[in-house]
Amino acid sequence: MSRWPFIAVVILVLLPMALMAGVGGWVLWQSGHWFWISWTLTICWVAAWLVYRYARRVEVPLPEIGSKIHWTPRDHAAAALIEAEQKRVSVYTGEQLADPQFYTTRTIELATEFAKHYHPNATDPLSSASVVELLTALQLVADDLETVLRQSVPGSHLITVGQWRSLAKAPAWWRTASNIGWLASIVFNPTSLARYAVSKAFVEPLSSQLQTNMLGAFYALFVRQLGFYLIELNSGRLRGGSAAYRAAMQRLEAANVEVLDDEKPAPAAVTVTIAVIGQVKAGKSSLVNCLLGEQRAAVDILPLTRAVQRYDLKIDENSDRLVLLDTPGYSDSGATAEQLSDTFEAVRNADLVLLVLDVRSPAKQADLATLDKLDAWFQEKHRFKPPSIVGVVSKIDGLSPMMEWSPPYSWEEPTRLKEQNIRAALEFARKTFGDRLASIVPVCTDRENGRVFGINEYLLPTISLLLDEARACSLVRSLHRDYDQQRAWQVVSQLMSAGSKIREFMPEFMKLELGKAAQSIMKNVLRK
User: pTM, whole model, 2 decimals?
Assistant: First the structure.
């Protein structure tokens, strides 16, 4: 139930009580108007029951815990588990939702369900998660719930565990008090029997549903937070602990928020890696040269066998650092093992991919095969977010009429023949690659003959639009990289810390013997 229908239900329930208390029951009894006014109690409660029946479903949206822009396709698919569990709220009773043990049991069951989603072939999928990761997820959930309750629920800091458990018994208390009141009312006025019947039919179900709805709203909130962090856990983003995760998410949020106040510092620049891939002679190096604005990438009419080249592209002083990876091309008959290895290595380290497509070459099977293998790799390595791919249709000056070159070309609304052919080439690429490409742009990168078009007009704006996604890829990879780099040293530091603690409590003679043993070991090592 959303906020306003819930408020309406509460008002309709309490309004007749406040009315009768204010006017005074004894005065109404003496004046003879008690009978008619008391019916407002029943009418309002029936209306409250109708309003509640109309909008009683507990609905809590997916969490806005920072940003979900860093989620992988498998993460988005796992979000369905959160929605499914939230829809099951009506299945649970008030007694279950008020029992702390119920939350412990459901946490373990949900953790197992999410683990199965990420490790479907494992016999015991939950066993692959480390204890530190599980504790990190629980800590993050607890921190978020504490913040929500403190900020949104008045008096939540005063509620005890016993009071929380008593919520499950509230309908029973209400029925007991209500029955006593109705019994006294019927004794003094037998005509109250009709109102009692209406109360039994509408008010008691309403009080029970309100109790279940309040507890269900909290459970849906609990599932919302727990599910989000179980996704983060199974994607490996909690391996570095809660502090490292919070810091990375703050960087991601700051990078994606536009700074409007000049007095506030701009968000820290993020290094975004852009891989340029494509077939041999498709125009990759020429594209890199145009992006760099100088002749730095190797250009040749013959296939080149070389490693991936790295170049820095700085748009302005306040922008992110862009790193271009110029990859060796793969042949139109299929990529060799060495070419695929270089291309895969570049894409694995990339936050955005530019797939260069020669407009004059209809052979796209090598491109499709490469994308298929990349998709399979990212599905296997589900912890990494696949970078967005921009199709760059190159060498558009070679389209008919070939002798014509008079940009700009408005291919979105073509009037000239060359514009029509550019649009047809883009439609062909879009039909061939489908939703594999986030966008498709036409370019010409023949700097030697002064034919440069589409870089500033289409490609750079497209890259700017996809920078948020690219930043998310970069930060997710940095989380995994930092953890992998620190993991070995963390074990060493833990052993050193444990050793120092043990040595503090050793007797002096044991310290002496330990020192002699260490000296003996060192002598043997040096002798060998």
Answer: 0.65
CA separation for the pair 521, 314 (Å, rounded): 54
3-state secondary structure 414-450: CCCHHHHHHHHHHHHHHHHHHHHCCEEEECEEECCCC
Domain chopping of the chain, boundaries: 1-56, 64-237, 271-465
Q: At what angle do helices 3-23 and 192-234 cross, to 10 degrees?
A: 150
Are 433 and 441 spatial neighbours (Cβ–Cβ below 8 Å)?
A: no
| Tokens 């494992």 belong to residue | 122
* Residues, the chain: 528
Reported as half-sphere exposure (CB side, CA atoms, 13 A), residue 222 has a value of 17
pLDDT of residue 439: 94
Enter the tokens of residue 492. 């060493």
Kindly give, in sequence order, each residue whose CB lies less than 8 Å from that of residue 436, ignoring residues fewer than 6 positions away: 371, 375, 389
- DSSP bridge pairs for 272: 322
Q: What are phi and psi of 327, to 5 degrees?
A: -95, 155
According to DSSP, residue 147 is labeled: H
The 10s digit of each residue's pLDDT in 384-413 is 888 999 999 999 999 999 889 999 999 889
pLDDT at 441: 95
CATH tag, 271-465 = 3.40.50.300
Sign of CA dihedral 103, 104, 107, 113: negative
CA 439 to centroid of chain Cα atoms: 23
φ and ψ at residue 292, rounded to 5 degrees? -80, -25
Q: Report yes or no: 35 and 68 within 8 Å, Cβ to Cβ.
A: no
Give the DSSP letter string of 249-280.
HHHHHHHHS----TTSPPPPP-EEEEEEEEBT
Judge residue 306's burial from the number of C-beta atoms within 10 Å of its C-beta, 0-12 exposed, 13-18 middle, 19 or more buried: exposed
What does the block give as tokens for 31?
């004046």
Q: Nearest-CA neighbor of 247 among 475, 491, 493, 69?
A: 475
Instruction: Please give the helix or strand (H or E) that residue 225 lies within, else none.
Output: helix 192-234
Distance CA 328, CA 55 (A): 60
- 3-class SS at 161? helix
Q: Which residues of 148-163 are buried (b: 16+ CB within 10 A; e: fewer)?
A: beeeeeeeeeeeeeee
